[in-house]
Amino acid sequence: MHLLTLNVTELVIGLLRGNLKRSETDSLADWDWACLRDDDIWQAHGKLVAQASLYLPGSFDRPPRNPAEKISSGYKAWEFMYYVYGYLPGLLWAVQKPKYHSHLCKLVSGARVALLVKTPVERRGPAHNLLVDYVEEFEDSFYARRVDRLHFCRQALHGLTHLMPENIRVGPAWLHSQWPLENAIGNLTAEIGSHSKPYENLSLRGLRRAQISALVAMFPEALEKPTHLPRGSVVLGDEYILMHPTARSPTLVPNGDARALCAFLTSHTVRVPAGWRPRVTKWGRLRLPNGQIARTAWKECQGERRGRPVHRARMVKVPIFFNLERCFGNSLACLIQFADDRFGEIQYFFGLKKMHDDGGTDEVDMTLAMVSMFTQPDPAILNDTHGALMACRYQGDQSWEVVDVKDIISVVAMVPLAPRREEAEDPHFAELYTRRFFVVERLGFDMSWIGREERAADEDDEDGDA
User: Fold this and answer.
1) What is the DSSP letter of 394?
2) Side-chain-facing half-sphere of 162: CA atoms under 13 Å
3) Domains of the chain: total
4) Which are the contacts of 250, defined by CB distance < 8 A and separation ≥ 6?
């Protein structure tokens, strides 16, 4: 916990800000890596971080606050983690020199693998190589064999080279890090009810926990908590649950939606009459197997138009088949976990009933999502950033597709990506670099949900629909 989320992040931010301890023999003018040293740039950067919080779904927990104002005022480890390993690859794209940006992305890519609860074997080697390269290049670029910069090479920097070997030896980092201990301390502290004899009370709570754990081990099925779903929810199977709000009555879909639906049905060998204009009943939320709640532009945009701040939870990831090995080689293909997926904005969920092909009277329910797909992540940026920065362009209603809701893997954040100077000067700027976003995935997803219950499903939407 402390290595990646506090110690390494403090070093990274100190280098970017140029406020590490400096001797008289080391001129600040030589610190060309300190792209956030100027106070005006730092303040503008902090505002971007604060504005990006609305692009993060609520399932991402606490988003990073403005570091220019809050980084020394109780900034949480979770905020440091998302700020450095989620935001910085995209927010520094336009302001940091490419060689230093590429160097930072090696740390980000390796750290994202180390933060996983389940680490695929094929990703350990590439992640370890990137972390070792980061440490070696750090010594060449920053320390540069200078005695007056020797304090740059902290113990935490060396600890990065042991992350993946220890992952192989004792398992993922969350098993032997501070996260479980902090969680246990918080739970036990909340259970203490006696201020006069706290330690006696704590020992009794520990005894009760041990007894409950023994009962759970002996009778696991009898002690399972029943799942309480919001009223009107529809269980779709495979842990997918469709939830309210829903429209009061079916509506005629626009031509663009109808074309996307017809294309989907045709690809599934369903005969569609010419000129068919379907009516659908829109739904607003979908609970995924990982516990996240996917929402829709249909409802979220209503809140935005009313002036309410809305954390966007309508950007999702869906799989495709894509040959990464042919494009990037074996090592990078193993490292980029999500590059063989597409990202899209959900417009709304809806259901269809399909008759059997044999002419029978039975119907097959299909629950689908109307999605506006982003472009594929820019392969050149993926390669230059070692898989840490996935830049996609938003295409609006020009790329609407229909997907089965069970193809949705997770909810992601799509944060605006500012162009570099050479990109802004490109004559094809409007065509290539506008409406561009970078992907932020939830880091160490399962780790943050240990010992916690999903409460997002109980949230009520403020709308007039049933």
Assistant:
1) B
2) 8
3) 2
4) 279, 280, 281
251-252 and 240-246: which strand pairing? unpaired
**Residue 211: strand, helix, or coil:** helix
Asked if residue 69 belongs to a domain, the reply is: yes
Last residue of some domain: 155, 178, 201? 178
Q: How confident is the model at residue 446 (pLDDT cuts 50, 70, 90)?
A: very low
Burial of 14 (0-12, 13-18, 19+ CB in 10 A): middle
> Which of 178, 195, 222 corresponds to the end of one domain?
178
**Whether residue 245 has a cis bond before it, omega within 30° of 0:** yes
Average pLDDT over residues 81-92: 94
Q: Indicate the pLDDT class of residue 322, thresholds 50, 70 and 90.
A: very low
Quote the domain boundaries for residue 286. 234-458
Q: Which of 274-283, 306-315, 432-441 shows the highest mean pLDDT?
A: 432-441
Residues near 236 by Cβ (< 8 Å), separated by ≥ 6?
A: 242, 367, 405, 406
Same domain? 168 vs 241? no
Rounded distance between C-alpha atoms, residue 80 and residue 93, angstroms: 19
pLDDT at 269 over 90: no
Q: Which among 331, 425, 267, 415 has a CA at the least distance from the CA of 109?
A: 331
Helices (H), 294-339: 297-305, 324-328, 330-335
More confident residue, 339 or 60: 60
- In angstroms, the CA 107 to CA 180 distance is 24
291 and 406 part of one domain = yes
Q: Which of 378, 349, 380 is nearest to 366 (CA)?
A: 349
Residue 194 domain-assigned? no
Task: Render pLDDT for 390-427 as a digit per residue (tens, 0 to 9).
Answer: 999 999 888 899 999 999 999 999 999 999 999 888 88
Lowest-pLDDT range of 71-75, 214-218, 321-325, 394-398? 321-325
If asked whether residues 172 and 279 sit together in one domain, one would say no
- Buried b / exposed e over 404-431, threshold 16 CB at 10 Å, is ebbebbbbbbbbebbbbeebeeeeeeee
Q: How far is 295 from 462, CA to CA, in rounded Å?
A: 13
What is the average per-residue pLDDT within 218-244?
A: 84
